[in-house]
Amino acid sequence: MARAAVDIGALSRDEQLELLDQLWQSLGRDPGILPLTELHTEELDRRLDDLENEGPVGIGWDELVEQIRARAR
Question: Where are the domains of the chain?
Answer without folding.
Answer: 1-34, 36-73
